[in-house]
Inverse folding.
């Protein structure tokens, strides 16, 4: 089974994505018996390898937000170094070059786009069309609740939402819009 299909299957049973920003959150994820999709949102280069290795060893699917790794340059050489040493399941980025390089290296890609206004939606749609990321994460996730489902699906690609999601009711409302997964750092929602 290809990696994208594997992730979609995981999200169908566990649609809440663990967004990890601290050692405490990482320990919580590592305590779960059932594997999850995990977004590593911030790390240092020296900690990244241990973090990704620990997550992978427990069966989790770690995605590294490349733009937020201290000490890692978000260019082709930096991505290659990360892939060779950390071996994440995928990457998250707002940058075209990162998405292109990661795709070429066989990683699952998540392009982050901010839904600020109609122009941002138009630009997001254009980016998805040209980059063809595996997934599109729209932020803030709570904005999804106010957007018509058809308009959201016009963005193209497989949708994830994240940011400012604080309740189970918000998670359900976002998923009802056709979104495959909701990323949150709220441990109580994992």
């Amino acid at each position: 089974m290809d990696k994208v299909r594997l992730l979609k299957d995981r999200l169908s049973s566990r649609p809440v994505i663990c967004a990890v920003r601290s050692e405490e959150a990482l320990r919580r994820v590592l305590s779960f018996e059932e594997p999850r999709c995990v977004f590593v949102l911030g790390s240092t280069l020296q900690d990244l390898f241990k973090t990704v290795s620990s997550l992978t060893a427990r069966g989790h699917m770690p995605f590294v937000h490349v733009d937020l790794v201290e000490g890692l340059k978000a260019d082709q050489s930096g991505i290659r170094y990360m892939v060779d040493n950390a071996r994440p399941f995928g990457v998250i980025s707002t940058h075209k070059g990162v998405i292109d390089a990661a795709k070429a290296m066989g990683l699952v890609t998540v392009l982050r786009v901010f839904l600020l206004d109609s122009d941002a939606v138009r630009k997001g749609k254009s980016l998805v069309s040209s980059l063809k990321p595996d997934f599109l994460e729209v932020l803030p996730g709570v904005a999804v609740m106010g957007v018509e489902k058809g308009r959201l699906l016009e963005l193209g690609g497989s949708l994830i939402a994240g940011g400012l999601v604080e309740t189970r009711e918000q998670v359900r409302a976002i998923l009802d819009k056709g979104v495959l997964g909701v990323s949150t750092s709220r441990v109580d929602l994992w």
Observations:
- Residues 118-131 form the longest helix (14 residues).
- The chain has a mean pLDDT of 95.
- Strands lie at 16-20, 37-40, 43-44, 61-65, 69-70, 90-93, 108-114, 135-139, 158-162, 181-184.
